[in-house]
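Two proteins, back to back. First:
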Amino acid sequence: MGLIKDEKNSSSYSSLDLAFESIDSCFGYVDYITTQIQKLTTQYNEGKLDEANESFVEVIELMDLYIQLVSRVYRVLRTDLKVMNFKDESIQKLEIHLLSVMKALLQAKEKNDTIMLCDLLEYELVDNLTQWKIKILPELKKLKNY
């Protein structure tokens, strides 16, 4: 939802402006989440289960916010831009994979399978986030020129 435009202030933002600003923020957000995942896997590997359990909740919450943000940005871009210059299927595949990794993480956590949990975090989730950062986010950012 866009901000109300103040006719005296030409610097007010539209939904599209906020979407592009959010894309810029997503790069740092991915780096932050990746750092938190590394911290979490270290805690599990060192047997610091209480700390790891707290960090796990934080990573899940961060991922939930990231998924919501990217989904809303994508929805605004699809709605507000007439020219779509990237493949929707790339985003859809990556999003589906991300959601399946999240589901698998929760299942591994329920079973207290820390080996599977660490593998999913280190390899699947970090890889998925990296793909967002190097493939999807730059493509979305390029749409600002349209």
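And the second protein:
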Amino acid sequence: MVILRPLLIAFNVAVVTYLIYRMFQVIKDPYMTQGRKTLIIVAGVILLLAPFSMFFGIMNASFLYFMIYPVAISLFLYLIREAYSGS
């Protein structure tokens, strides 16, 4: 358990940094429709709130979090990639 906490913190720092970077890219894209931008930004903000709620004690770090959060991040990145490919 001692080694799990630093790994979780490192993973969350990397994910939060990358999500913020990608959200700024979406905001600056002039060719994306406003509805698509809104969907991506809202999904990104919800995903950013999950680690912060865990660190502030609102939500416990559970096995379910470790299983669902990486899948949600992957789907979010797929959504952004599809937005850039024109689909």
